[in-house]
Amino acid sequence: MSDHNGKPAMNRSADTTAPDIRPNRLNDYQDIFADLHPPLDKHEALVEADRCYFCHDAPCMTACPTHIDIPQFIRQIAGGNPQGAARTILSENILGGMCARVCPTETLCEEACVREAAEGKPVRIGLLQRHATDHLMDSGVHPFTRAPVTGKSVAVVGAGPAGLACAHALAREGHTVTIFEARPKGGGLNEYGIASYKSVDNFAARELEFILKIGGITIETGKALGKDIQLDALRSGYDAVFLGLGLGGTNRLHIAGEDADNVLDAVRTIAELRQSSDLSRMNIGNDVVVIGGGMTAIDIAVQIKRLGAENVTLAYRRGREHMNASVYEQQLAQMEGVLIRDNLQPEEILLNDQGQAIAIRLAQTEQRDGKLVATGVTLTVPADQIYKAIGQKLDGQGLGASGIEMSGGRIKTDAENRTSMQGIWAGGDCVAGGQDLTVSSVQDGKIAAQSIHQHLMQLPEAVSGFAEAVLAANRKDLPSLWPRTQPIHTHATSPVKDH
């Protein structure tokens, strides 16, 4: 057997070599995931704020998916009012603290900054946003007051950025929100999916605690849609439902050898890293290959390299200019020692006699007439571990035969984030057209909350105890009690408790 270029190839299941995978590759694990961008001190923040032109048309504000008034909050920092700046930020983006850490500002607000165009050095908007929001959170003050209780209740499925943004906005209006989260902790990808060096000191959990200070929001963890809770029951027991499901499924490579034990899901491994109390126990390969070209691929590659892998290769099937990871993220990976190789598409994972992956064969590609085609040349790269970072998909669990219209494997919504089913909204990564960014998910939650609030204020008063009865019955008697054709606005809700 030989590669297409005539060089000898490795045979599948014809090698007894064992992958070099072991824990404790480093002598010292302290600070290996230290803060990627240390915060600005007071003087640095004032100097940076002074660089802003406070543009009237504010292209940076237009570039922000949540439309934060950037000139205004920078002006407030310059005037010595960081708490006021934080309120300006959080009024539009309640997760402004995390977004200051993880947003690709280099391709959003900072790329639009006029100083970037004139000097190639934009105002460091992300760090200024962090300076303000950290100042407020450290003070222990919640900047918003909840409106009088309305008696309306909303079920939110998923405690990620979209769900939390929606819940907070609704709670501010006086509605009572119950969030159902499948995992043991709230926060979604902010808790489980962000590279450890981007969010340190348990910030995701602290931000979640800060959000809940508004009151009126309860999170029930360990409650998965389709398993522990049913969509029909939520729809009948609450005045409105918001789906912020995220993307729980993982795409496959569809090549031989993919199911080997040392071919791993990058998203799952990042979650393990984030929740690990002892990084020295993480099993790390010496030669590692990452498949993908997005932020997740960069995040796993950099973290595995910092954990002691000798050789980390990131293989992407298209040209470098097509990578979803920004140029900044690509440069970060290269500075960490990650080798990025583009125009290489996985063809086969090679196994030893024990069924373990020991190498991957990659086919060289090129663009011809707008199509990606193989050139006939292949490359075999040794691999003790292979990480798949090729995107996620909506697993659809819990949606079942609900009748919610889908598009491209995700939930279809209108301009107000309404689904095709009355009384149900959706947002975040699970909806069609989503940008898979924390800041975009927050905006989805905001838009949905505005629409839900308008809907709720047109509903009649609640009937005490109805929601509890519905959920306790687990929907067994509902078909006879409430026909599926009955409008959602006639469904009553649970009694309201101001938590």
Give a structural overview:
The chain has 499 residues and is α/β, with parallel strands linked by helices. It contains 18 helices and 19 strands. Strands 4-3-2-5-19 form a 5-stranded parallel sheet, covered by helices on one side. The N and C termini lie far apart (68 Å).
Please name the defining characteristics of this protein.
five-stranded parallel sheet, 499 residues, disordered N terminus, disordered C terminus, alpha/beta, 18 helices
Brief account:
With 499 residues, the chain is an alpha/beta fold.
- Number of E strands: 19
- Helices, by number, come to 18
Shape: globular
Low-confidence stretches: 1-12, 475-499
Indicate the structural class: alpha/beta
User: What percent of the residues sit in helical stretches (DSSP H or I)?
Assistant: 25-40%
Main sheet record: 5 strands, parallel
Percentage beta strand = 15-25%
Average pLDDT, rounded to a whole number, is 90
Strand order of the largest sheet: 4-3-2-5-19
Taking Cα atoms only, what radius of gyration do you get, to the nearest Å?
25 Å
End-to-end Cα distance = 68 Å
